Amino acid sequence: MSTSSAPPRPQLRHFINGEFIAGGKTFRNISPVNGEHIADIAEADAATVDAAVKAAQSAMRGPWGRTTMSERAAALHRIADGIQARFDEFVAAEVADTGRPVHQARTLDVARGIANFRTFADLARSANTDLFQSESADGLGALNYTVRKPLGVVGIISPWNLPLLLLTWKIAPALACGNAVVAKPSEESPSSATLLAEVIRDAGLPPGAFNLVHGFGGGSAGEFLTRHPGIDAVTFTGESRTGATIMKAVADDMKEVSFELGGKNAAVVFADADFDAAVAGVMRSSFTNSGQVCLCSERVYVERPIFERFVAAMKEKTQALKVGYPAEDNVDMGPLISHGHRDKVLSYYRLAEQEGATVVAGGGVPHFGDERDRGAYVQPTIWTGLPDDARCVTEEIFGPVCHIAPFESEDEAVRRINDSQYGLACALWTSDLKRAHRVAPQIEAGLVWVNTWYLRDLRTPFGGVKQSGLGREGGRYSLDFYSEITNICIKL
Ligand SMILES: O=C(O)C(=O)/C=C/C=C/O
């Protein structure tokens, strides 16, 4: 009888003080494509997190703390080169953990991982600080200038929806500004972070400059990290209630926080919009990454004259979406991140019908007749007919679903869009330039796209208002968050 044994599953380890270490408990990495157990991941206990923080503190007192901006910029470019050199491995890691389409992992996730390091390498090198020529009572004047210094040790907790993109979005500026980092990726997406640790090691950063610990949130690595007295600042992307928990955990130590949290984003389509562009745009903003992007539109408001036509067009395109394997040609959508998240999304699919929704498309689980039926797939879904206060129209679902409602006037649209506990992003479709400039500033959100969605210039401020977050990252906003700024006044 053949004794062919399956290849050993990867064991994903922590990266602390320049070394990969394992030990202690492990937890399983399950494929969302077919439910298979694909790897085992070390879970950091409090002692492991403490070792990581101490390594970071030591790096700040050692060579890393003495690097110049140019040396750090060069190090970031070496990291970007390293990701580029192992591009296909990063794609495979993202796809293994998340089941996303390969073409998305290539064109968005890994490409942005490289871009994030290069952007902040160049921004940090060219960033200026303030200088004011000040008057004084004796008429001789004074000079006021600011200097940027590292915060110290930054704790980074990143989410599973865009694993590499969002982890590097924080690591790059944190390192560029001279901090040491302890990062904890989501337990759902450990693979690309672990590969990144190899690249950072091979880029020659001193031991302790970057550290990686795996685990969960409360009662696990995430809580040990945020509560550790050696952590000087915490940056987190994830659910709003987790953000509130972290804020409470760090309040007594007055640690700096930057939060990019949940959303219930709106898309608003005026009758004068380019119809085909708006349909294509709302399809993207509703179903990209299986709707698992904090910027996705789960509320769509369409001006009455084109409402029926718009719903019909969305129905046709949604029913034509190809849901399948990551590597299938022209696949539009993969599974959700996990069976647990799928259960959450399906609970809203059931709730919508109880709340009286008309299910225009989807509403259930696709049937493949193969291993994918053991995966975490759901159908892309469209609802109409719900009241604005329905839970499915107010609560973040974070799945491939949107509710489309008609509106009669611009003021009504703005009022309904703003009637939300969240305020992250909005996509506005109109051909009237004056309307675009009139409406966009009225939207209570950190980001408004007009006649596009998720077009990113990494120099711009990124973040949300209300329950969608605290602070902005991006461009000099990241440099300001990841630095301590001192103002120095020189009497002339
Ligand atoms: O594109 C970015 O820089 C970014 O932060 C995206 C966040 C998406 C969250 O789900």
Automatic annotation (TrEMBL):
Keyword vocabulary terms for this entry: NAD, Oxidoreductase
Record: active site: E260
Enzyme class: oxidoreductase
GO molecular-function terms, A-Z: oxidoreductase activity
Entries under InterPro entries matching the protein: Ald_DH/histidinol_DH, Ald_DH_C, Ald_DH_CS_CYS, Ald_DH_CS_GLU, Ald_DH_N, Aldehyde_DH_dom, OHmuconic_semiald_DH
Pfam families according to UniProt: Aldedh
Gene3D superfamilies referenced in this protein's UniProt entry, alphabetically: Aldehyde Dehydrogenase, Chain A, domain 1 (3.40.605.10), Aldehyde Dehydrogenase, Chain A, domain 2 (3.40.309.10)
Highest taxon, organism lineage: Bacteria
Signal sequence extent: none
Enzyme Commission no: 1.2.1.85
Aldehyde dehydrogenase domain location: 25-487
Protein family according to the UniProt entry: Belongs to the aldehyde dehydrogenase family.
NCBIfam families: OH_muco_semi_DH (TIGR03216)
Protein name (Swiss-Prot/TrEMBL): 2-hydroxymuconic semialdehyde dehydrogenase
